[in-house]
UniProtKB/TrEMBL annotation:
Key words of the record: ATP-binding, Cell membrane, Coiled coil, Membrane, Nucleotide-binding, Repeat, Transmembrane, Transmembrane helix
Binding site for ATP: 489-496, 844-851, 1127-1134
Membrane topology of the entry: Multi-pass membrane protein
Organism: Micromonospora chokoriensis
Protein known as: DNA segregation ATPase FtsK/SpoIIIE, S-DNA-T family
Length: 1319
């Protein structure tokens, strides 16, 4: 028969709630018979009095007659009033009775409807046995009752009338105003009618009821009732909630054969060859033996419950045990409790005794059911006073009962449970732990499940009379001594050996799945060194005194473990402590999704010096002291001495004290409150165990570090196991046999001079069980990028690092190994450049590895992304550290400090990408970089690479030496992240970055700072970075990391050759498109390169723009009108004038164009032929004469004269002409403003030196104000801003900044005509 798992949904048929009592209104009071009351009776009398007064005092007048009339009227009124009051009381009584009878009739109808509805609901909730088949077939009703339900184990036994709703009569009568007796009788009749509701199921409460008796002379009647109880329990309660058992005799076995089908009757903790043992037994002793473990556990839980004043409340949260005792014709048989102090009810046990006579009942019963034919009497003896209900017994067909049992047989709700074992330790250490042969340990036997009393209770030595001294780390609520303690002993007192004994005893008696340890030795001694390979050790921390960073890391690790355990308990549901957590995992069995949570012993040696090094530990210890009990953390602090003032109340949580010999009486009093530890003999291992005021015991600690004695002749302890037997009709106890084959001895590793400690630890180290590591090894001083990942592999997309968690949105790049001690995790450090604005800054002092971080970042991008996904551009302002990146296919260009032009071009190119992406976003309606990453290949090809990373090594140099680049870099910082452009820089300190841009670097990586207090992450953590550890970083998440070396060969050598080789390997694995390279203008631009540029009508192409390499043109006869060139000698000014003149002469004839040449240095002597030359001046005098002649011509011109020729003033080295005081060109000032109307054009040059003053001379000022096109070539920066926002700078020959009014300046390379005489 195969089993079928049953899902139990939310309960559909809810228990009937308690009904509110009905309070009847009081019957009406009897009306009185008085005819008149109050003023009505006085009115006639007052009238008669007035009339008599008038007749007596006013005799002889007309008023006497009036008085007589009044007298007559008063008497008549009195008579009329008397007649009207006759019969009023009777009429009032009749009206009140009719109204009250109508009220009672309405209430009767309502109560009748409530009665009918209650009968229907009760029948649905507790159907008869004949209708249980519908319950079993209904997934919503099967096993619907939970342990917390109020009707749990309330079983139907018959039908009868029950008092379900109290009905009360409100009394309002007084002796002077009695109620109407007739109406009162009617109300009482209604109360008697509805006092009991007929036709309701009679239910007996069997939940934790102890002993219950069912009495009838006819055995068939009691067996039928017991059968009804069993099938109802099996139908409404899951096997996990109720266990059934039957005690009968072999002669009566046929009456109970059907019950063996019930899964509730199977003991799954005792699995035999034929399956679970049926709890159908012939004696209560057999049942007690089969359920010994369960009953013992129930007794322990009940004792705890009573200790916490919870009474039987705890028993109602456990599974119940219902026993049927078929003792008909005999005296009831008792099921003994494991503890005399705890009754069966407190254990959650109910025993139903089937008896023939009341005299056969046990001494104390809670309920009694008496059956006489078809009638039934149910007595609840626990009520005060006892209650009795009478009804009829339900019919229970035997075939139907067996059919119901067979229907329930294959159903299961949860997995099997298991029983915990217990053991008694001997006095000797080896014998106590079962170490008869330490060289051949049976770990399965040593780590067998321990009972709750023995859990975390181990021997540490013997008392003066040789009895074992046990240390119980459990809390006092679990009858333990813990959970926290203190061990103090001077040097030579045996403190280290005592700690070793305790650790070894715990490890040898508890499996790693139940107990883990963190062993801390602040001074780095050898106390815990032998336990390094023990599977229980989740952290072995030594030599903290040598590295302050390890102290901080230990604090974080322990604090993280405390938080992890709290979170596990919270995630498990309403679990308050680790004990409930383990019970929950045990109930869930193999299907449990809860992770293991062993108890954790944190043992710290020399904790006093630890507190002196980091005082914050006291807060952590105090928190563990408060919550360690619930999360399963046990704290044992050890030191040579304890200063009371530094404990800050921690001593209140240290329940047990281990006091070895001390050097002073004060130290002894601090630990034991006595001077006994000071008076101990100077022999190691002697001490006192003190637990609050209940235990004070002297002991001698066991010694486990001594030489191992020869155990070759020692006999192995017999290994016992269950003996397979066929499943009998009745459940019996399976006895162990001695013929099991023992396991073969395991080979052990023996070293020179093994000790008991080393031998036991070596064998435990072979176990496959391991606890979760809390303390991981510190980060290595150096590692390569491939060591950060799981290796490197070749893919169709190139070389790739195997990085877990690389997938997902953003731009994640491996940079090193991250250490998160709070989560007990070390793994790849993935920096997401796509988050927090998309920029990052690496800070650190000289030699800390800033440049290496950038190289590793670049190599990490290259080994996790394609060149079409990420393009890298580098600017090295500190040296030549990024040169090795040039070989990567992802790198579009690297500019060193000496190549200032390439630096500027790199920034310009990246900034141009920003403008391009902005246009693409608008065109395709993109919102974020994720939209661009998800775009098709056509859109991605437009940008060349999706993400762009600009590396700036030495960001602080921008402020001092490359100020012109700052605006564009700041723009990239502010807006680039949205468009996939990321800036990653390095700096020595934060103040090298302007305050406005610091916020843009949300991703921050801090190496060792020259002044750790300047850390923007955490100054305290920054001080923990070793000054001699290059690459050790503090992340913005306040975690430490080690930046990997940019190598892929697994050799942690910082030599740059590894980066070059890695770059070659990456380039060799990629054959696809590359990111756009950084384009740099050539040093010499031949004029022929501009041959394909459209020209004519005064448009002169004279160079190419650096930003996009488009031609730079001069529209002299159009929008530009004038051309003003500034540049120091030998910068290409004269070459540019020659180029402009020759191009214009090639476009116009001598009739349309004439030049007036001002050439003090004669560099243009051979440029303009005579046909085009209107005049040539080489000095100030000739210049003045030529100016006058030209001005005379200009004065004759009118704007309407379209046939005039254009006059071009070709002026070279204006500053030489302006040196004379005569201002030879000043005559042109009035004509410059109207030059467009007169056909005048100025093409002039001058030096940058002195331009800050010379530009304000009349003629240059007039030219500039006319809106001329300007070209600022190489010059001295100290001249300041010659144009708005533009300063001169040192540039190559022929290079200049083109300034057109209304447009930003653009770098331009002018074309070269050939040999030109430059000045």
């Amino acid at each position: 028969m195969s089993t079928r798992m049953v899902h139990r949904p939310t309960r559909a048929a809810r228990p009937i709630s308690t009904m509110e009592p009905v309070v009847l209104d009081a019957p009406p009071q009897l009306p009185d018979g008085r005819s008149a009351v109050g003023l009505q009776a006085l009115l006639p009398m007052a009238g008669a009095g007035v009339a008599m007064s008038m007749m007596m005092f006013l005799r002889g007048s007309g008023f006497a007659a009036l008085g007589a009339v009044v007298m007559v009227v008063a008497l008549a009124a009195a008579g009329a009033m008397y007649l009207t009051q006759l019969g009023k009381a009777g009429r009032q009584r009749r009206v009140q009775r009719e109204r009250y009878q109508d009220y009672l009739e309405e209430l009767r109808e309502q109560l009748r409807e409530d009665e009918q509805r209650l009968q229907e609901q009760a029948t649905v909730l507790d159907p008869p046995v004949s209708r249980l088949l519908d319950v079993i077939r209904s997934p919503a009703r099967l096993w619907e009752r939970r342990r917390a339900d109020i009707d749990f184990l309330r079983v139907r036994v018959g039908m009868g009338a029950l008092p379900v709703r109290p009905i009360q009569l409100r009394e309002q009568s007084t002796p002077t105003n009695p109620l109407d007796p007739f109406m009162r009788h009617e109300a009482q009749s209604l109360m008697r009618r509805f006092e009991l509701t007929p036709g309701l199921p009679l239910r007996v409460d069997l939940d934790c009821a102890g002993d219950v008796s069912v009495i009838s002379p006819d055995r068939h009647e009691v067996v039928a009732l017991a059968s009804a109880i069993l099938v109802q329990v099996a139908a409404f309660h899951a096997p996990d909630d109720v266990t059934l058992a039957i005690v009968t005799t072999p002669e009566r076995a046929m009456s109970w054969q059907w019950a063996r089908w019930l899964p509730h009757l199977l003991d799954r903790s005792s699995i035999g060859p034929s399956g679970p043992t049926p709890l159908l037994v012939t004696a209560p002793e057999t049942l007690a033996e089969l359920l010994a473990g369960d009953l013992e556990e129930r007794a322990t839980s009940a004792l705890k419950s009573f200790r916490h004043n919870a009474g039987r409340a705890e028993a109602r949260t456990r599974s119940r045990l219902l026993v049927i005792d078929d003792a008909h014709g005999q005296v009831a048989r008792a099921l003994a409790s494991p503890d005399q102090f705890v009754g069966l009810g407190s254990l959650g046990v109910t025993v139903v005794h089937l008896l023939a006579d009341r005299l056969h009942e046990p001494g104390d019963i809670s309920r009694r059911i008496t059956i006489d034919g078809g009638s039934l009497v149910l007595e609840d003896l626990t009520a005060s006073p006892p209650t009795t209900l009478v009804g009829t017994v339900d019919e229970v067909p035997v075939p139907l009962v067996e059919g119901l049992a067979r229907g329930i047989a294959p159903l299961r709700l949860s997995a099997d449970s298991y029983d915990d074992g217990t053991g008694t330790p001997p006095a000797d250490f080896q014998d106590l732990l079962g170490l008869s042969d330490p060289t051949n340990l049976d770990l399965a036997t040593l780590w067998r499940p321990r009972g709750e009393r023995d859990f975390l209770r181990v021997p540490i030595g013997v008392d003066p009379v040789g009895r074992p001294v046990l240390l119980d780390l459990k809390e006092s609520a679990q009858l333990g001594m813990g959970p926290h303690g203190l061990c103090v002993g001077a040097t030579g007192s045996g403190k280290s050996e005592l700690l070793r004994t305790l650790v070894l005893a715990l490890a040898a008696s508890h499996p790693p799945e139940r107990l883990a340890m963190v062993l801390v030795d602040y001074k780095g001694g050898a106390t815990f060194a032998p336990f390094a390979e023990m599977p229980h050790v989740s952290g072995l921390i030594t030599n903290l005194v040598a590295d302050a960073a390890l102290v901080e890391r230990m604090y974080t690790s322990l604090d993280g473990e405390v938080q992890r355990r709290q979170q596990l308990l919270a995630d498990a549901g309403k679990v308050t402590d680790i004990v409930e957590y383990h019970l929950l995992r045990a109930v869930q069995g193999e299907r449990s999704t809860l992770p293991p949570l062993p108890h954790l012993l944190v043992l710290i040696d020399e904790f006093g010096e630890l507190l002196a090094a980091k005082s914050e530990f006291i807060d952590l210890f105090l928190r563990i002291g408060r919550i360690g009990r619930s999360i399963g953390v046990h704290l044992l602090l050890s030191s040579q001495r304890v200063e009371q003032g530094k404990m800050r109340g921690l001593e209140n949580y240290l329940a047990y004290r281990l006091g070895l010999r001390t050097l002073t009486e004060m130290e002894s009093r601090t630990v034991l409150d006595t001077v006994d530890a000071f008076q101990l003999p100077p022999l190691p291992g002697n001490g006192y165990l003190k637990v609050d005021v209940s235990i004070y015991q002297r002991f001698k600690a066991a010694y486990v570090s001594g030489p191992l004695t020869d155990g070759a002749d020692a006999e192995l302890a017999p290994i016992v196991g269950p003996m397979a037997k066929p499943m009998p009709v009745f459940g019996t106890v399976r006895r162990d046999t001695d013929d099991d084959v023992p396991e073969e001895p395991k080979a052990t590793r023996r070293t020179t001079g093994p000790t008991l400690l080393s031998t036991v630890v070596e064998q435990m180290a072979t176990s496959d069980q391991r606890v979760q590591a809390i303390w991981l090894p510190p980060l290595p001083p150096a590692l390569t990028l491939d060591q950060v990942a799981d290796g490197i592999r070749s893919t169709p997309e190139g070389l790739r690092l195997d990085i877990a968690g690389q997938s997902g949105t953003g731009l994640r790049v491996p940079l090193g190994r991250l250490d998160d001690p709070a989560r007990q995790w070390q793994g790849p450090w993935l920096v997401d450049l796509g988050s927090s604005g998309g920029n990052a800054l690496v800070l650190g002092g000289p030699g800390t590895g800033k440049t290496t971080a950038l190289r590793t970042l670049a190599l990490g991008l290259a080994t996790t992304h394609r060149p079409t996904d990420v393009g890298i551009y580098g600017i090295d302002l500190l040296g030549n550290g990024l040169a090795g990146l040039v070989g990567l296919p992802h790198v579009g260009g690297v500019a060193s400090r000496e190549d200032r032009e390439r630096i500027r071009r790199t920034v310009d190119e990246v900034h141009a990408m920003l403008a391009q992406r902005q246009r693409i976003y608008t065109q395709h309606q993109f919102d974020t970089i994720d939209d661009l990453r998800a775009a098709d290949e056509h859109v991605r090809a437009e940008v060349g690479c999706v993400d762009v990373v600009l590396l700036i090594d030495g960001y602080g140099q921008l402020n001092t030496e490359f100020e012109s680049l700052e605006p564009k870099v700041h723009d990239l910082l502010a807006r680039g992240g949205r468009y996939g452009i990321h800036v990653v820089g390095t700096a020595r300190r934060w103040n090298e970055v302007r305050a406005a841009q610091q916020v843009a670097f949300a991703n921050r990586i801090e190496l060792r700072l020259t002044e750790p207090a300047e850390s923007s992450i955490d100054g305290r953590l920054a001080r923990g970075i070793p000054s001699d550890q290059a690459g050790r970083a503090l992340t913005s998440g306040k975690l430490f990391a080690q930046i990997a070396l940019p190598r892929l060969d697994g050799q942690p050598d910082p030599a740059n050759a590894g980066l070059v080789a890695a770059a070659e390997s990456v380039r060799g694995s990629w054959s696809g498109p590359l990111p756009p390279p950084v384009r740099v203008l050539p040093a010499v631009l031949p004029l022929a390169d501009l041959a394909d540029t459209p020209a004519g009508h005064g448009v002169v192409p004279f160079g190419r723009f650096e930003s996009d390499f488009t031609p730079a043109v001069l529209d002299l006869f159009g929008q530009d009108q004038h051309f003003f060139v500034l540049g120091d000698p030998r910068t290409g000014k004269t070459n540019l004038l020659r180029l402009v003149a020759e191009e214009l002469m090639g476009q116009y004839s001598p009739d349309d164009l004439v030049f007036a040449v001002f050439d003090p240095r004669r560099g243009l002597a051979d440029v303009v032929p005579d046909a085009y030359c209107g005049g040539y001046a080489t000095n100030a005098t000739l210049a003045q004469q030529l100016s006058a002649a030209v001005c005379e011509e200009l004065a004759k011109r009118q704007p309407s004269d379209s046939a005039r020729s254009r006059i071009v003033l070709l002026i070279d080295d204006y500053d030489i002409l302006a040196a004379s005081a005569s201002q030879p060109l000043g005559a042109f000032v009035p004509y410059v403003a109207a030059a467009r109307d007169t056909g005048l054009h100025v093409v002039m040059t001058r030096r940058v030196a002195g331009a800050s003053r010379g530009l304000f001379e009349p003629f240059p000022l007039a030219v500039r104000e006319a809106g001329c096109l300007s070209l600022l070539m190489s010059g001295d920066r100290t001249e300041g801003q010659l144009f708005t926002g533009v300063r001169p700078t040192v540039l190559p020959v022929g290079r200049g900044q083109l300034i057109r009014p209304g447009h930003p300046p653009r770098m331009t390379q002018t074309a070269y005509l050939g040999e030109t005489k430059e000045h």
